From TrEMBL:
Biological source species: Terrabacter ginsenosidimutans
Compositional bias of kind Pro residues: 403-412
Keywords noted in UniProt: Amino-acid biosynthesis, Hydrolase, Magnesium, Metal-binding, Serine biosynthesis
Metabolic or biological pathway, per its Swiss-Prot or TrEMBL entry: Amino-acid biosynthesis; L-serine biosynthesis; L-serine from 3-phospho-D-glycerate: step 3/3
Catalytic function, reaction form: O-phospho-L-serine + H2O = L-serine + phosphate; O-phospho-D-serine + H2O = D-serine + phosphate
Location of the region described as Disordered in the Swiss-Prot/TrEMBL record: 393-412
Entries under CDD domains matching the protein: HAD_PSP
One Pfam family hit: ACT_6
Family label: Belongs to the HAD-like hydrolase superfamily. SerB family.
Name of the protein in question: phosphoserine phosphatase
UniProt keyword Amino-acid biosynthesis, yes or no: yes
Domain Phosphoserine phosphatase ACT, chain residue ranges per copy: 99-169
Hydrolase found in the keyword field: yes
Amino acid sequence: MSSTDGTDIQTLSVTVTGDDRPGVTGTLLGALSGVEAEVLDIQQVVVNGHLTLTVLLRPGTHVDQLRDAAAVAAHRLGLTLTVVEGTGVNARSRQGRAAVVVLGAPLSTDAVSLVTSRIAEHGANIDRIRRLSRYPVTTVEFDISGADVPSLRTELALVATSEGIDIAVAPGGLARRGRRLVVLDVDSTLIQQEVIELLAAHCGREAEVAEVTARAMAGELDFEESLRARVQTLAGLPASVLDEVRESVQLTPGARTLVRTLKRLGFTVGLVSGGFIEIVGELADDLGIDHARANRLEIEDGHLTGRVVGEVVDRAGKARALKEFAEEEGLPLSRTVAIGDGANDLDMLDIAGLGVAFNAKPIVQEQAQTAVNVPYLDSVLYLLGISREEIEEADLDDGTPTQAPPVPHAGH
């Protein structure tokens, strides 16, 4: 920054460090307020109770008075003081804003070092670092500028693979704020099981159906053909088995927290499933979800016929549903988030503003914008810049019990 006559302005950077406690900022600024000066910038961070507070001033002719006032305040507070004179204020362009979110369990120093080095090699600058969660995973958000989001995403994907961590790169600034539509797959995403396998267990063909399901989710089989073949195995089952399956469905750890938090933010939530509306609809009602689309089983004389009714919700159908939900809500696709695990989710993950592969099949992780491989669905909230503390404070405010997410069942 330059003064109006084109010359660089004089600056004074006042930094105090030490144990954090209430009143530090007020005491320091109160001491400085007795001397005529202009505040140009102020930053504060607390890590594990250790405070770093920096005030950047335009001191005019009062450098010595400001030094003395800061020294008195720091001594009174028992903090370490650093004062640096300079000229000019960093006016670097803030274009190319991006948010880089790194998740790890654990998150090693080597991994963080590689992430920061790659950001620097990309030519971007880290403007701010914020911890979003300590448990059940460690999550750190880097607010950066000077980034090309698609290329940086590709570069950091290599780090994620080599270090066994998850990294999401998304546009920053206003693109990260405002209302969104979040659409989730159901089987092995919102819930831990595959509903068609639960149904097949009632006719002793679970293993057979599970094999076909795995191949379809890996992209080895046409989804519609595989669905019709699997549903055919259910022919003759009494419709009452649907009630039993509803009772046996288990939500993925963090699913309720994810939906509850999104709704608090005023977001719209939808479910799109290659499973069955008889189950998905009940889940949507229970969780207060706004939209639900899935296949419908044909039932005659109280029994399943082994057929589905109407158009099959396949890979293309999921993408169409996301588009239609967005249109109904008056939101552009750039304001949508899609979460899924199977090959039939790839189209909706691709067209969404943010596509998240959640504990997904290899083909999905390779093609999705970002992947989350921790077993807690509410970890997706961190990708949106929402911290664990914010989630728990909101729960506390309305009396919702808060606890660390449970360890998921094996096989999820």
